[in-house]
Amino acid sequence: MRHSTKPIDDATPIDDISGLKLPGGRVYTLKEIYEAEAKNIALATLKYLSAPPSKKIAPFTYGWLQELHQEMFGEVWEWAGKFRSVELSIGIKAYLVPVALKELANDIAYWDTHETFDIYETAARLHHRAVQIHPFQNGNGRWSRMLANIYLRQHGSMPVKWQEDLLAKENPKRDSYIQSLKEADNGRYEKLIEMHQHTY
Ligand SMILES: Nc1ncnc2c1ncn2[C@@H]1O[C@H](COP(=O)(O)OP(=O)(O)O)[C@@H](O)[C@H]1O
Ligand SMILES: [Mg+2]
């Protein structure tokens, strides 16, 4: 079933709406799609953040990293939990994604066992690496912020209250968030770590 979207003010345009799972036969606004995504993501929030998740529930393994994206977006998008096959302006080459994500899972396990960093720095680093890899066609930002929050919640901290309107281009918080990711690209993690200390 083909879909089309009617662009609205205030929303990031979505170039490619193929794979949209919402009932066909009508036009969806980007706002409606965003709200359907938010409803889907709320299920993951409930599952992973309402109480500290055990390592069994949130093992931070390669398979689980994919599964989490499926859980967050699977009711709305066919490609949820599936690696992208196209190159994007952010992220590594598509064919490198599986190996990079396996390496990330291994690094998280190592950092965790050896307590290489404190929990805020670990959360910041895994968030940054996850979004730098950019495994999926979309939802990488929300997925990587969720990952960081699950990590924090699992290690005795409350989650960070990310303004989920970080998507909105004119949100001033978005600029400092993107700026802190860019600094982390150059090995300067301070700002991003500080953002992870702003828990509820
Ligand atoms: N230069 C950048 N500009 C915009 N987003 C960036 C940049 N560098 C990294 N990102 C990350 O990519 C995310 C956007 O990727 P996307 O897959 O569209 O995720 P989402 O749909 O959840 O916003 C941002 O939220 C941010 O985490
Ligand atoms: Mg997006």
The portion of residues assigned to helices is: 40-55%
CATH topology (level 3) name? Fic-like fold
Biggest β-sheet: strands ordered side by side in the sheet:
1-2
- State the name of the first-level CATH class: Mainly Alpha
Strand content: under 5%
From the N-terminal CA to the C-terminal CA, the straight-line distance is 42 Å
Oligomer: single chain
The radius of gyration computed from the alpha-carbon positions, rounded to a whole number of angstroms, is 17 Å
What is the correct CATH architecture? Orthogonal Bundle
Tell me the name of the CATH homologous superfamily. Fido-like domain
User: Which secondary-structure class do the elements indicate?
Assistant: mainly alpha
Given as residue ranges, the uncertain stretches (5+ residues, pLDDT < 50) are 6-13
Order of helices and strands: EEHHHHHHH
List the domain count as a whole number. 1
Arithmetic mean pLDDT: 90
The gross shape turns out to be globular
Structural write-up:
The chain has 200 residues and is mainly alpha-helical. The protein has a single domain, classed as Orthogonal Bundle (Fic-like fold), CATH 1.10.3290. The chain contains seven helices and two strands, in the order ββααααααα. The protein is 50% helix and 2% strand. A two-stranded parallel ribbon has the order 1-2. It binds adenosine-5'-diphosphate (ADP) and magnesium ion (MG).
Summarize the structure in short:
The protein is built from seven helices and two strands.
Task: Provide tags for this entry.
mainly alpha, 200 residues, two-stranded parallel ribbon, globular, binds adenosine-5'-diphosphate, 50% helix, 2 strands, binds magnesium ion, Fic-like fold
